[in-house]
Write a structure and sequence with these properties.
Number of helices: 9
Distance between the termini: 13 Å
Number of strands: 11
Radius of gyration: 17 Å
Number of domains: 1
Order of helices and strands: EHEEEEHHEHEHEHEHEHEH
Strand order of the largest sheet: 1-2-6-7-8-9-10-11
Oligomer: single chain
């Protein structure tokens, strides 16, 4: 089975990243889904933006949603993106790491994402991910039916796969630079044994896309969804 193609922040090489235009263009280019970044607003809203602060606006978590939208109408809400991508997978990365200016150890954003999905009648095809393990632990605690994935930049990927399985998470998202030939076969084998999906980021090189597809990973997260689709379909 060929891996899925998920557009990293949308088709960000041809449209502003994390915008409705970028997500729409990604699907037009053949992506099976999109990856995006979520922060909370000061009044509990959910906005799609990579950084905790927006230029000329400030830290999003300190501002009411209406103020964010009035000043930056290009920053969509998560609900708007889910509507835009209806029928396609949306990988919702919750940004919440210690040291971030909007870090919240009470995991309000995780709770807000679960509440939004519930309010929408669970009609959306999503996977909720984070670099912060307690964030996806909280999502899983609130609703085990919501698939969750753990983002990792380095480390023992076999051990991290086991940790995901032990904690009820659906996927491991390793950085492409740590998925070399010496580990990929063992990683995919372990993932199959534990029923944990392996979704690799950010994969833009054609040969890397082909290598990982041949190895049997589950999804490539890429800035060039058209290129990935062509390579995987050839």
């Amino acid at each position: 089975m060929s891996p899925a193609v998920w557009a990293h922040r949308g088709a960000r090489t041809i449209a502003p990243e994390n915008t409705l235009e970028a997500f729409g263009r990604a699907l037009e280019l053949g992506a099976d889904g999109v990856e995006l970044d979520v922060h909370r607003s000061g009044d509990g809203g959910l906005v799609v933006h990579h950084d905790a602060a927006a230029p000329d606006l400030g830290v999003l978590a300190t501002l009411p949603l209406d103020a964010i939208r009035a000043s930056r109408p290009d920053i969509p809400t998560l609900s708007e993106v889910l509507d835009c991508c209806a029928g396609s997978l949306v990988n919702i990365e919750i940004k919440n790491l210690p040291g971030d200016v909007d870090f919240d150890d009470t995991e309000q954003a995780a709770a807000a994402v679960v509440a939004l999905l519930d309010a929408r009648g669970r009609r959306d095809d999503v996977l909720v991910s984070s670099f912060h393990l307690p964030t996806i632990d909280r999502v899983h605690e609130l609703d085990p039916s919501v698939p969750t994935g753990f983002l990792v930049f380095h480390g023992d990927l076999i051990a991290e796969t086991d940790r995901c399985a032990d904690r009820g998470h659906s996927a491991l998202h390793p950085f492409v630079g740590f998925v070399g030939d010496d580990v990929v076969d063992a990683l995919v084998g372990r993932a199959r044994a534990t029923e944990v999906a392996i979704n690799v980021w950010t994969v833009n090189d054609e040969s890397e896309i082909g290598r990982l597809a041949a190895a049997g990973i589950d999804a490539v997260i890429t800035d060039v969804p058209d290129v990935a689709r062509r390579v995987i379909s050839s």
